[in-house]
Structure formats: C-alpha cells, structure tokens
Design a protein that fits this description.
By secondary structure, this protein is α/β, with parallel strands linked by helices. It has 14 helices and 17 strands. Strands 3-4-2-1-5-6-7-11-16-15 form a ten-stranded mixed beta sheet, with helices on both faces. A three-stranded mixed beta sheet has the order 8-10-12. Helix 4 packs across helix 6 and helix 6 packs parallel to helix 7. The longest helix has 22 residues.
Amino acid sequence: MMENSVKPVIEGKRILVIGGTGSLGRALVARLLGGGIGVPAKVIVFSRDEAKQHAMRVQYSGSGAGRVASGPGPGRLELRLGDVRRFDDVAAAVRDADLVINAAGLKQVPSCEYFPEQALLTNCLGPVNIVRAIRETGTAVKVVVGVSTDKACQPVNVMGMTKAVHERVFAAANLSCPATRFVLTRYGNVLGSRGSVIPLFCQQIRQGGPVTVTAPEMTRFLMSLDQAVDCVLAALGWGGPGEVIVPRIPSATMLNVVKALVGQRNVEIRITGPRPGEKVHEVLICEQEAARTVRRGDYYAIRPLLPELYQPGGDEPVALQGPYSSAHGLLSLDQTRQLLDQHRMLPEQWERSGGENLFSRLAA
C-alpha cells in the first residue's frame, strides 16, 4: 500500500525537505534517494546548519545519488542554506519544489519553555512563511506535509502550543491555497532521534549512572525513525486536505524503558521529578478529536475541524470512543525490551557495533 500510494506522488517530482539535516530529515532524504518508493527528479535539503549540510554532502558524494549541488543547480540532491524564519529564504526554496515536507522545528520541551519566542519563530512563523510563499509566489507545489507532535494535542507546554498552531496554519492553508493539499502528521517519541531522551539514558548508563527518570508512572509512545518516515510518506500519498495522520504505535512507562536499557548492570535509577512543561502521559488524539477519527490500516486519520474541508467518509466508521493516550495498552517490561532490541536501541548492541553507535550517528 505504501509504495502504491506514494510512488505516483513522488516519481519525477522535486521534493523540498525543510529541516532536512535533522534526524527525521536525514532519514527522509535517505528513503527518497533510495529508489524503493519511486525516483524523484530532485531532493532539496533546506536548513540553516552549515556543518550538517557539509556532513550530508560528504555522505552522498559518490554514493550513487548523483551530483550533490551546493545551492541551486543540477544534481539529484541539492543543499540549500536558509532559515524557515525568513520569508525570502523560504520563498526562494519553495519556488523550485513540487512537494514540501516541513520537518523543521524546536523540539526540546524545556528549551521552548525558557525561550518561547524562539519556539514561536520556528514552529509558527516558519509554517506561516511556507504558506505565504506558496500563496504569493504562484508556485507549482501540489502537496505540503507538516510534521507535528503528540504534545500538540491538548498542549500544556510551549512546544506543544506552537506545534498546535502549526497544525491549524497548515489546515487553514487548504482554503487560501486551494491548488495545494496541506496535510499533517502527528506522532510520539522517536527512538534515537535528537528529541528523544533515550540517547541521554544510554550516555548515563555508559558513565555508570545514575540514570535519571522524571516520574516512575510517566508514559510515552514509542516508534522508530523508519516508522516516522513511513508516517510522513503515508500523509504525502493519501492524506486528505487538513487531515492529521496518526500512527498506531505502542507505549511504555519511562521507568520500564530505563530498566530495559540498564538490564543486569549495577546502575542506580534516580527519580528527579518532571521537567518544566512535561506531561505525565501524552495524548495523540483527544476526546474531542476522537469523534472525527477514522482508521486506515496502521494509521488513524483525524478529519479536519473546518467544515469547508470536511468530506463525509462514506463507509469509514468512527474508530475511537475516547482519547488515544500513552497511558493505555502499555507494554510490559519484557515487551519494552523486545521493542528496543528490535530497533537496536540497547547499549550492548551499540557496543558490539565497533563504535558506529547511535551517538556517532547523531553527532554526524
């Protein structure tokens, strides 16, 4: 289903990945250039991090991805320095794109609490700039996918609030830019990404502890980077205007995650209390949204709130009777360890990899 729905969308297209040097952005670029889901004419990586762009240039030079262009020019992979906060930068990049994926964002909850104006600029003004660029420059962009977070659902912190605005900005853009389909993805903790706490846990374990857990009852949804990429591609392929595509993924207590990572090691686990802006449980779909939610394979689709975008679902029944919370259907400790083992998240797996571990990949 994935290849059948995505391939016609990306084949021969110019795909702009905003925030393309982040964890998700790099995984997306690798999938798009891999050829398994179609061959795009060009993948344009847009970010403001010169060092990460250089690392990506080195990675793909001579890799079979074709010429790597440093700025506008020939080549299947093009690297563009720019800032999603600056309209002129965004307009110049969007002008050359058929499809846009917005993976840019400030994702650390405490950082956004201490610097809310910075979160506002990246997470809210950035999406506004994308919409404005499409509306005002007459581009040929057909689809825009925005990457959101479970923290945008009933938000209690700045990161979630700004991402909730991101969702609404893109949903409403379907009305002001009717030739472009704007769709959202919303998911939870991505194992091993820069926004994940797991690299911190493993670093603490390697240093002999203590491993710090904010609250023993705290729960989080868990998914891999590959699953996050799958979700974005699903939205790109079949997500409707203004819909929010949510993966059906497991959840676990953070205490069980730490216990699975520690294993038999003699390492102290210390409870420190929640950080500024943290929830005990995350919610991917709230009670009010549940009435507009249908199931499509491994995903839920939240139908848009705006009545102008709402399309009757035909034979699609409402899939949820209540909120979709990380507190429900928790994995046991053994199941949590199996999940981490499946996605190669355990410290001993990194140690056996001869130094090519999660930390070295994140530092690249």
